[in-house]
Amino acid sequence: MSDDVQVIFTPSGKRGRVARGTRVLAAARKLGVDLDSVCGGRGVCSKCMVVPSFGDFPKHGLHVEPGAVSGLNAVEQRYDKIRGLKPGYRLGCQTEILADVVIDVPPESQVHKQVVRKAASERVMEMDPATRPVYIEVEEPDMHRPEGDFQRLAQALEKQWQVKGVRTDLEVLRVLQPVLRKGDWKVTVALHDAGDGPRVTGVFPGLREAPLYGLAIDLGSTTIAGHLVALDDGRVLASAGVMNPQIRFGEDLMSRVSYAMMNPGGDQEMTKAVRDAMGDLARELAGEAKVGTEEIVEAVVVCNPVMHHLLLGIDPVELGQAPFALATSESLDFPAREIGIDASAGARAYILPLIAGHVGADAAAVALSEAPQRRKDLSLIVDVGTNAEILLGNNQRVLACSSPTGPAFEGAQISSGQRAAPGAIERIEIDPATKEPRFKIIGNDHWSTDPEFGTPRITGICGSGIIEAVAEMRMAGIVDASGLIGSAEQVGTPRCEPNGRTHEYVIFDGGLEGPRITVTQGDIRAIQLAKSALYAGARLLMDEMGVDTVDRVVLAGAFGAHISPKHAMVLGMIPDAPLNHVSSAGNAAGTGAHMALCSVKARREIEDQVKKITKVETAIEPRFQEHFVAANALPHATAPFPELRKIAPLPDVSFNTGGSGEDGGGRRRRRRG
Ligand code: FES
């Protein structure tokens, strides 16, 4: 009988010969098979579960006898008694290979497991987290040996895990000694390595059975949204959002830059405000997921350049003027506490690279998540927010720009506008014959005309609601192509009421009790400005690419996910395309942050991709203004929108009587934010 045996691991197909009696975990290490272990083979973490397979394997030319692996040893028997081994499952670190065998590594035992990111795109993401938990037993101190506790911890990592040259931060040293003693010299460390060498970023007493956690944060100008993610399989355990408190210094980005320019120390005030909010968000997420903030060992942040600089404590003044120079465009990896995140002592933060002075890490995150560079067809990806990030590209070339849409799409600057919250009108339909509306509010599944709708509190109209309202008004002939609301006589409904020198359309009148929800002429103008900026940005990229049409349009952003593609096209927010080629991608920037949190490979991919993206600067491009003015009409002054006309009525009405005080034109103050 030969002294070595053949072992084949599935699903990887890796195979090789090992000495008879080798344990499965050791064989996996030798053959480079991805088999998890936190305890280093001590039989306590149960991460190394494998399933030995027996019988005939003609594909592998192998017959496996039932005795090809050892029977349950004392450690496995104890585990089985206390926790119960699943039928067929074995602890890889305890099971010896005695003859030729096929060993299956189930997904839960793979560190680099594949996870489907989300059902919509079915994109498969590989887990490749920068931080993993590692259990070690550290030698106790001895009067005769002068090394410190950390040096003995580093020796344990080297001896027990072959991890050499580990570093740590002062913050970790501050908590190390009590934790070592509490764990009786047995600890689980959070070991971070994103290609820059191993670093201890957290330390927990004893064997840590729960996973480590990370935060994926999308820091927007208006809201800061975050997910708390388990770093073993990438699942989201909690999601929350807080307002960006910098709003009190200015609603849009440029007004915040101006605040920093006009007020000495203003940038520092804004830095402090956003860092405080990051801390609040971390605590809120940890509370919701019922984990301690010290269990959070990493954070990935995506944001636009102004938010980026203010978060890092860099004065954003250069971003307010051409040539819009960034302090740094590269990705950054630094202690998370520096940006206010309440986390483990040595937790790291990673910020994706920036594309350019106006196109930030949030756009890079969208590129990572939507990956237009992997597709043959031409995608236009629009991340709708206070500042829209726009990507246009395919596997040949990707272009990017940002466009200052302002906060109207988020319900701000709208007379009855409000954030998306229960009670807000989010959907609306207007009967083109009677001009009567019906609507749905957040938190109620019924149309307002259904008896089941009841008498809920109606509070306002949110961003997706105002888009639908204006588009429906256009389709019902209440608003003309120039954006003017007609009078009651012109339109034929008493719902069009005078409001100063213009008119407003009454969606809901709660009488003395309730709110009166209307769409005013000012609201239409605010939406026209926002949508023209969006369209003009997209059009500029299409000019640069030399195309008149795109193959698909993706609406991204937390808000983009709620926009009805048809209504967006009636407004002319996006270029004309067959409706079934327009889709929503949800919060693509947040998804990109999540991907970068779960995978070092994804970080390298986007760092590489960002260097290849061609940046188009809208602020200094004269054609932007031309496109902007033409895009002011609903849907557009010159573009014919043939696809849209197939599916939506666009009545040829005009309410410009020449004396309304409204010119229907597209004058605007140039603004970013
Ligand atoms: Fe921890 Fe096997 S490696 S139980």
Shape: elongated
The average pLDDT score comes to 90
Please give the largest β-sheet: 6 strands, mixed
Strand runs, count: 31
Assign a percent range to the helix content. Answer: 25-40%
Give me the Rg, rounded.
29 Å
- What would CATH call the architecture of the largest domain? 2-Layer Sandwich
CATH topology of the largest domain: Nucleotidyltransferase, domain 5
Poorly predicted runs: 660-673
Strand content: 15-25%
CATH class placement of the largest domain: Alpha Beta
Number of domains as seen in the coordinates: 5
Strand order in space, largest sheet? 16-15-14-17-19-18
Distance between the termini: 75 Å
Structural class given helices, strands, pairing?
alpha/beta
Domain 2Fe-2S ferredoxin-type: 5-109
GO molecular function: iron-sulfur cluster binding
Protein name: Drug:proton antiporter
Region (Disordered): 650-673
Describe the structure in your own words:
With 673 residues, this protein is of the alpha/beta class. It is 27% helix and 23% strand. The protein is built from 16 helices and 31 strands. Strands 16-15-14-17-19-18 form a six-stranded mixed beta sheet, sandwiched between helices. The protein is elongated. Mean pLDDT is 90; it is low at 660-673. FE2/S2 (inorganic) cluster binds at residues 25, 37-39, 41-48, 91-93.
Topology summary:
Blueprint: E1 4-10, E2 15-19, H1 24-31, E3 49-53, E4 55-57, E5 62-64, H2 74-82, E6 90-91, E7 101-104, E8 114-116, E9 124-126, E10 131-137, H3 149-161, E11 167-168, H4 170-182, E12 186-192, E13 199-205, E14 213-219, E15 223-230, E16 236-243, H5 253-262, H6 266-289, E17 296-303, H7 305-312, E18 332-335, E19 348-351, H8 361-370, E20 379-383, E21 388-393, E22 398-403, E23 424-430, E24 437-441, E25 460-461, H9 463-475, H10 488-491, E26 496-499, E27 502-509, E28 516-520, H11 521-545, E29 552-556, H12 565-571, E30 582-586, H13 588-598, H14 600-612, E31 614-615, H15 622-630, H16 642-647
Helix pairs in contact: 5-6, 8-13, 8-14, 9-12, 11-15, 13-14
The protein binds FE2/S2 (inorganic) cluster.
